From TrEMBL:
Coiled-coil spans in chain: 120-244
Superkingdom per UniProt: Bacteria
Residue ranges of the TM segments: 20-41
Protein name, UniProt field: HlyD family efflux transporter periplasmic adaptor subunit
Localization (cell): Cell envelope
Keyword Transmembrane helix: yes
Keyword set, alphabetical order: Coiled coil, Membrane, Transmembrane, Transmembrane helix
Keyword Coiled coil in annotation: yes
Species whose genome carries this gene: Shewanella schlegeliana
Length: 368
């Protein structure tokens, strides 16, 4: 009976151990399945994520490559390496001048010809005032000079008279007291002292008049020179309002940087603004403008293709000669910054190229 009890106890313990081991095995198997499924899902997610990113990068690279291959079109204008700019001068106190006359645009100017004339009314009035001021200064100098010379002559005369009085007083004072009454002798001595005092006063008065005359004439001379200088500057400014050509070439009207309109007769222009340009007919080049966004695509020396707006069927070849280091704002084009591009080109006998012609510039071409 005791043996059967022990056997049942062993069987129960074995069954408990078996159940525990089976639970552990099931737990381990479940964890393995979960880990395997998680790894498989993670691999799929990573693969599905990498494919769109790779595709996106490849698409952007292809887009950038296509963009670099696309040609860049610029608008330019035929210009001359040697040119004369006609700028509004500072000829008076005003900062705005009206264009009174200009040589017709496109006409050929010769050296020495008047090309631009600005309104002279303001400076003419100033010249009249300065001429009147100079006349007043000269008249004042003349009148004061006469008055001061008269005062000087009077002082010199009084000085000589004082000297004579002193000599007479000395002669009287030299008479001995033995030959005169005591009162007369004392009067002679007193008159000598008085004459000496008067002579010193006259000398002092003459010195003061001479100093006054010198200072007054110096001040009047300064005033006259200043009036003459102001008048000469005004006359020079009057000449500057007529600007003449220094080189031969066609007359080209400039554009207002704010309105992008060409200047015309009757327009007002500020001091320092360029209103007309005369380019020389030799050593021509093309000036184009590139936006700051695309300036990195322009390389010095790269070939370009050129088409004149007036003769678009003719294609000219050239190359970029230089790009400005500093950008410039063109108010009429917006708030962007623009870089100046200089282009050298080969002339073609089929077309007559004149400064001022509009040109379409195409970059990204291969050299032939």
């Amino acid at each position: 009976m005791l043996l059967n009890f022990k056997s049942r106890e062993k069987v129960a313990a074995y069954n408990r151990w078996k159940r525990v081991n089976l639970s552990l095995v099931n737990l381990a198997l479940g964890l393995s399945i979960i880990f395997f499924l998680g790894s498989a899902l993670s691999s799929k997610a990573v693969a599905s994520t990498e494919r769109p990113i790779t595709a996106t990068l490849e698409g952007k690279t292809a887009s950038i490559n296509n963009r670099e291959l696309m040609p860049l079109l610029l608008t330019g204008q035929v210009a001359s390496v040697v040119s004369q700019a006609f700028i509004v001068p500072k000829a008076g106190d005003t900062w705005l001048y009206q264009i009174q006359w200009m040589m017709p645009e496109g006409s050929l100017a010769k050296p020495g010809q008047v090309v631009v004339i600005f309104d002279k009314s303001e400076i003419d009035n100033r010249i009249e005032q300065l001429e009147g001021s100079l006349l007043r200064v000269k008249a004042q100098e003349q009148s004061q000079s006469i008055e001061l010379n008269a005062q000087l002559l009077q002082a010199q005369f009084e000085l000589k008279q004082a000297k004579l009085e002193l000599e007479k007083a000395k002669l009287d004072a030299a008479i001995l007291a033995d030959f005169l009454a005591a009162k007369d002798y004392a009067d002679n001595q007193f008159n000598q002292l008085k004459a000496e005092s008067e002579l010193a006063k006259k000398r002092q008065a003459l010195s003061e008049i001479q100093d006054k005359r010198k200072a007054s004439l110096s001040q009047l001379s300064i005033d006259k020179k200043r009036a003459e200088l102001e008048l000469s500057q005004a006359l020079l400014g009057l000449e500057q309002l007529e600007i003449r050509a220094e080189i031969a070439g066609p007359v080209l009207y400039s554009r207002d940087p704010w309105t992008d309109k060409k200047y015309a007769v009757g327009d007002n222009a500020r001091i320092g603004r360029q209103v007309v340009t005369i380019p020389a007919l030799n050593e021509l080049e093309i000036i184009a403008w590139v936006n700051e966004v695309d300036v990195d695509r322009i390389k010095v020396g790269e070939p370009v293709r050129l088409r004149l707006d007036s003769q678009s069927q003719v294609v000219l070849s050239g190359n970029v000669a230089g790009v400005s280091r500093q950008a410039k704002t063109q108010p009429a084009w917006g708030s962007s910054n623009w870089f100046r591009v200089s282009i050298k080109f080969s002339p073609d006998e089929r077309v007559e190229i004149i400064p001022g012609m509009s040109v379409l510039v195409e970059t990204g071409v291969t050299s032939s």
